[in-house]
Amino acid sequence: MTDLPLLMIGAMYENGGNMTHRFLDGHPQMWVYPYESQVGTRLVQDPLSSLFPVKYRWPVFALDATPAQDYKAIIDEECKVRARTPGVSKFRHMPFDFCDDERQRIYEDLIRESGRSRPANVAAFYQATFRAWKDYKRTGEQSMYVGYSPIITVDAEKILADLPSAHVLHVVRNPWSAYADTKKRPVPLALDDYMLAWNLSQWFALLLSRRHPERVHLLRAEDVMSDPVATLGPMCEKLGLERAASLETPTWNGEALEEIAPWGTVRRATPEANRATAAELTGTESGRIAELAWQYLDEFDYRGFLER
Fold first, then answer.
1. Domain count along the chain
2. Phi-psi region of 14 (alpha: psi -120 to 50; beta: other; left: phi over 0)
3. Which of 38, 87, 132, 175 has CB 3.0 to 4.6 Å from 55, enough for a Cys bridge?
4. Contact present, 273 and 176 (Cβ < 8 Å)
5. What's the mean pLDDT in 189-206?
6. In whole angstroms, what is the distance from residue 32 CA to residue 26 CA?
7. What CATH number is attached to the domain comprising 12?
């Protein structure tokens, strides 16, 4: 299968992509990737390469590579670290019966059947993951694959062209809470640099959702936090899937999570926690963010967010 039924989630850093991914995790009709599915390769080179890490981009493969080389080119850092050196993985506390070498063998078998191409390589990557994942909870109803990679919305046009059955879901979060969470990273982006990337992510999302309204979907993280079933349910129905009760709770392999971290920096997906996070900023920081994000505050109904 090279026309993979894939829902690819994209979001600027700390914008609720990991959170939304976890709310979809328990859906009985979805094969939900365990971590960020960082499908990018180091061969990605374009004007955006200096702004966004290539591991988060849609992949580029060498024309003369072998299937084994293609597989190793896919960065997929979070999964490979958990599988190969679990002691240093931030997910080491969660059970994961998975062998990366076995996934590679399955991947190469699939490519021998389909032949090499970017869509075939991506399809084989996702299919092989779930065949190699031994303790994954299979329902017998799964029909759509779900991946998440930060900022990959910038490559939505390529995703849709490669995989005619694919959809892209872009998640946006108010820039104050998002930047406040970004500041908690060991080496955070400077405010102006963060907002440049935040603005560009929203520009791509709005442009491509207008260009492909049936396949590029936009959701606000605030709406997911407020009512995940009411927010994610209609999108599932657009994909031909049910509005499952599982959407109510963030999970790992179907098991409820007390907090979403370390899948992203959002710990508790509540409107109260989201507002409290925004309130951590100084007045100078909040004002600067409002200035830099001005054209998107009305577009996403964030004007006056700090006063509500």
1. 1
2. left
3. 38
4. no
5. 98
6. 8
7. 3.40.50.300
Residue 43 Cα to chain centre, angstroms: 21
* pLDDT higher than threshold 80 for residue 1: no
Q: CB under 8 Å to 159, separation ≥6 — which residues?
A: 6, 8, 58, 152, 166, 168
3-state secondary structure of 263: coil
Helix (H, G, I), strand (E, B) or coil at 43: coil
Site of tokens 């019966």: 97
Q: Which domain holds residue 134?
A: 6-307
Instruction: Give the pTM.
Output: 0.96
Tokens of 184: 């908690």
* Residue 276 included in any domain: yes
Residue 144 lies in a domain: yes
> Residues 215-263: pLDDT tens digits?
999 999 999 999 999 999 999 999 999 999 999 999 999 999 988 989 8
What's the pLDDT band for 27 if we cut at 50, 70, 90? very high
DSSP of 118-177, one letter per residue? HHHHHHHHHHHHHHH-TT----S---EEEEE-TTGGGGHHHHHHH-TT-EEEEEE--HHH
